[in-house]
Recover the amino acids of this structure.
């Protein structure tokens, strides 16, 4: 039988799962205790943060799975790294955005996993010529000498997302003043209403999303116009277009109608004057 403290922790997890509709897994790996305490304090009004005991949280999920459909999908995301738990009533996407904004940059350390592609940008450095050129070259960074200083010739990806950062690369990044790591609560996945949203889904590029939404709206509008589909946005324009097309047809075929009477009479008068002039009729 589990120890009493384990039973209490399982019950606490179950209570939080029942109380909060949005449950998330975060990774505490490489998160200093001081920063964790500060973030807990900052988020306490909207988010409950708890340390995650993998087996005990799994037990709580199993116990609550009958009450909350799909909850078991969250278990696999709590099996890697140093998991932590968050409970909230906020929208998963706004929560992810809030946690991302609360992060701060930090230097890379040997053995850490790159959270994204780490790129050393092209440009001048403060280094004088020397062994640094060889060190940069061994890390895959193209460098040269200009004006007595080392210059990086082109943007260079030194570590790809998900790869382990080597000690040599970590040292170079620190000397170059590049702090690629982020200190904060790293969202792994969030559960809401039977659906699990992994980090890849939550990490929305808002500018690109709005651009794609605008493009989709324009395509839909063009399709409706070309296919003759009446909508709130197209009805007025389509009626105007239909009127102009009908008017153009009536003028071309000389069909008498209220909208073209004056123009047909003007056209007839012009033709008459032309015949009169050609025939030299006074």
């Amino acid at each position: 039988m589990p120890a009493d403290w384990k039973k209490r922790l399982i019950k606490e997890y179950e209570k939080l799962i029942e109380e909060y509709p949005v449950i998330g897994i975060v990774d505490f790996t490489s998160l200093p205790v001081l920063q964790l305490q500060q973030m807990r304090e900052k988020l306490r009004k909207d988010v409950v943060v708890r340390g995650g005991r993998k087996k005990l949280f799994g037990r709580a999920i199993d116990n609550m799975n009958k009450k909350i459909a799909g909850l078991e999908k969250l278990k696999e995301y709590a099996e890697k790294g140093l998991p932590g738990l968050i409970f909230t009533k906020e929208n998963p996407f706004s929560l992810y955005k809030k946690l991302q904004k609360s992060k701060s940059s930090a230097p890379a350390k040997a053995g850490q996993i790159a959270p994204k592609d780490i790129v050393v940008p092209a440009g001048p450095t403060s280094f004088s010529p020397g062994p640094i050129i060889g060190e940069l070259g061994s890390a895959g960074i193209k460098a040269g000498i200009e004006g007595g200083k080392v210059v990086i010739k082109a943007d260079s990806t030194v570590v790809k997302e998900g790869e382990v950062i080597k000690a040599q690369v970590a040292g170079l990044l620190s000397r170059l003043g590049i702090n690629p790591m982020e200190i904060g609560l790293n969202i792994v996945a969030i559960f809401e209403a039977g659906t699990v949203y992994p980090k890849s889904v939550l990490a929305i590029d808002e500018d690109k999303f709005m651009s794609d939404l605008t493009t989709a709206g324009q395509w839909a509008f063009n399709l409706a116009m070309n296919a003759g589909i009446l909508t709130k946005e197209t009805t007025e324009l389509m009626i105007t277009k239909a009127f102009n097309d009908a008017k153009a047809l009536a003028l071309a075929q000389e069909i008498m109608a209220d909208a073209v009477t004056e123009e047909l009479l003007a056209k007839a008068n012009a033709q008459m004057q032309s015949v009169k002039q050609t025939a030299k009729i006074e």
Remarks:
- The first strand starts at residue 22 and ends at 27.
- The first helix runs from residue 4 to 19.
- The radius of gyration is 34 Å.
